[in-house]
Automatic annotation (TrEMBL):
Pfam families: Cystatin, Inhibitor_I29, Peptidase_C1, SQAPI. Residues 1-16 form the signal peptide. This is Cathepsin F. Residues 18-112, 116-200, 204-313 form the Cystatin domain. GO terms for biological process: proteolysis. Residues 336-395 form the Cathepsin propeptide inhibitor domain. InterPro entries: Cystatin_dom, Cystatin_sf, Papain-like_cys_pep_sf, Pept_cys_AS, Pept_his_AS, Peptidase_C1A, Peptidase_C1A_C, Peptidase_C1A_papain-like. It comes from Mizuhopecten yessoensis. SMART domains: CY, Inhibitor_I29, Pept_C1. Belongs to the peptidase C1 family.
Amino acid sequence: MNVLIVLSCVVACCYGSGVPGGYSKADISDPEIIGYANFFVSQYNLRTKAQGGNAAEYTNVQLVSANQQVVSGMNYDLHLRMSNGAVTQMCDVVIYVQPWTNTKRVDTQVCHPVTKRAGGYEEHSVDAEVMMMANFALNKMNVLLKQSNSLVRVVSASTQVVAGTNYKLRLELDQNKFCDVVVFNQPWTQTTQLTSNSCDSTKRQLGAPHAISSSDIHVQEVFTQAIELANGMSNNMYRLSAVSIQHVTKQVVAGMKYEFDMMMGESSCRNNGESKGLTAVNCPVKSGGMSTTFHVVGIWQSWTTPEYHVTVTPVVDNGVVDKPKETQQLSTMEKFLSFKRKHSKVYSSMAEEKKRYRIFESNMKLAAKIQQTERPGSTARYGATKFADLTEKEFRQHVGYKWDLKGNVGMQKAEIPRGTTPEAFDWRDHNAVTEVKNQGSCGSCWAFSTTGNIEGQWAIKQGKLVSLSEQELVDCDKVDEGCNGGLPSQAYKEIIRLGGLETEKEYKYEGEDEKCLFNRSDVRVTINSSVSISSDEKEMAAWLAKNGPISIGINAFAMQFYMGGISHPWSFFCSPKELDHGVLIVGYGVQDGTPYWAVKNSWGPDWGEKGYYLVYRGGGVCGLNTMCTSSVID
């Protein structure tokens, strides 16, 4: 059974991410989503047959749209069309999936046959052809009306076969405008015409307040000041933290006026100078504490100093807060403010800050999804790391390109020690691991993985721990690609060709591709050869305990938001075949019954477990056992 994808990426990209805690758009080209559509149709066919039906099985399936929701598992809301040659049905279904219990079921389904009227309009999926007609109509209207509207999405589409095809489309444009258009297309004469168009918009009175999102960057600033003002007027010995924010409006006055109601509750922090600036992230609202609602008015005038003039008025004493429920929107806002303070984030403009907040908001939803879908035994925590305001593309500068899984082919195989392997071992306890370093935004992880291994080998064989130069490899390795990635297996050969490595002190790290300044007279460490190590994790542990840290490649999927604990993502999230980051295994152990690897990263000591990544040991998690190597020092 093959699913035909009929919604183009152009459309998918136009949608937002949904309300907090609700459904968000899913990619219908994702094989996992396609698999759930096939699962539903197969279940539908089985039920029909079990009920004595003799109709042909449905096999032709078209996915129209998909949404997903993080619960204790995942809900997938699918809108699809299926046909068995005689009957076509449109179905809305919800499939519940909980991977760690192998649960997959159809929770709800509503299907109805598509009736065809001779010569009439039929519902049509929003595919690339429909998008082409929508953009044609938009361009024509912009020319006719002398406007510059932008297309947000195609709300609905239907087609009618005439001497050609009529496309009846409902379009959502910017400025909350909706247009109904008809486009006639006759391919054999290369004719395309806009034959009908009418638009409406939700209008508001000029100068009147209108509702806006609490994520607005100006609302955030007013909100931050309002919290301090509310605590300043409070005689409560405990600091008040925000519980919710509601009824947010914006109005053009002599400047811009922002109003909202802010519910605040008693926290466990004392209301004094030491707690000033702390948010609900640091001072959570305690159950059983008192709560108050304040009405907040903020006037923003960019030409005055200060720019914001905020007043706070208590309006309702709400009594006891039994179970404080922060809105996710507010929680994310406070996390963002806390994130900025913790990591000293300063943005170049208000527009840039607004952009970063939206990225942060999206990333926190992804972090929550990773958190909720971790495998049993995981103790990992995911959240607002220093990379939380970066797009996926920006974050990839801190990893690298996908590794060639054949990169270790031809290497000499390491001899695996026989006998008893220690239950736990860590080379940090034996002075064979240097401090955690920081590669910055240069994709030089492979160089740090390589030098980390050689530092360990040299310390074990020569009795001296020396911090070695990654910049030498970035600049002088002619096989690898510096800040654009590389492989330790290749780097070992280049080190032998160069004649060795200088120290970090002699050849300092710059985090950029630069001219090679290698000085053979400054070489402090040399290697003789290199080996590849078994992918059997028991044998890896045995080799490490006897010989030293292991250079490895790993899929960095879960690392952008990793804050600590033992990470154990599912393989369909973190493919073992898509390695993109070089790191160093320095030890292993067992924590509360869960075996783990201690992995040294190169993103600084303010990431993860003081610069380290703890990963579940024994399941080939994220491909960490795929490309294991070491230098050899005689």
